[in-house]
Design a protein that fits this description.
The protein is an all-alpha fold and 111 residues long. Helix content is 89%, strand content 0%. The chain is built from three helices and no strands. Helix 2 runs antiparallel to helix 3. The chain is flat.
Length: 111
């Protein structure tokens, strides 16, 4: 019987070691892939801006304008959401706990 227990323990230990190795490998590979993708994106963006500038296009201001438009849209969405939550908080049929939770959300949106 002790031979069977040793075999089971050895099998489990091998599975744990193998699983640890797979997880470690996946972690290291995924970090490497993320770094390579980030570097490739940055290089591609830089090359694209250079090529556009060589063709007489000012693409960087277009990118900045796109970001500004997106930020303005997000601010408007947050404002609308906060207004809707404030209206919801004023309802009489809500429990005090629900009103407190809504107040916490509104406070979080203001930060």
């Amino acid at each position: 019987m002790s031979g069977r227990n040793g075999l089971i323990i050895g099998l489990l230990a091998g599975l744990v070691c193998g699983l640890f190795g797979v997880i470690l490998t996946m972690h290291l590979i995924s970090n490497d892939i993320i770094e390579k993708q980030s570097a490739a994106y940055a290089q591609g963006l830089q090359d694209g801006v250079k090529k556009a500038a060589a063709d007489g296009l000012d693409i960087s201001s277009q990118l900045n304008q796109g970001m500004a438009d997106e930020n303005a849209q997000l601010v408007e969405t947050l404002h609308t959401t906060r207004t809707q939550l404030e209206a919801l908080q004023g309802r009489d049929d809500l429990t005090p706990q629900a009103k407190d939770q809504i107040a916490g959300i509104i406070t979080g949106l203001q930060d």
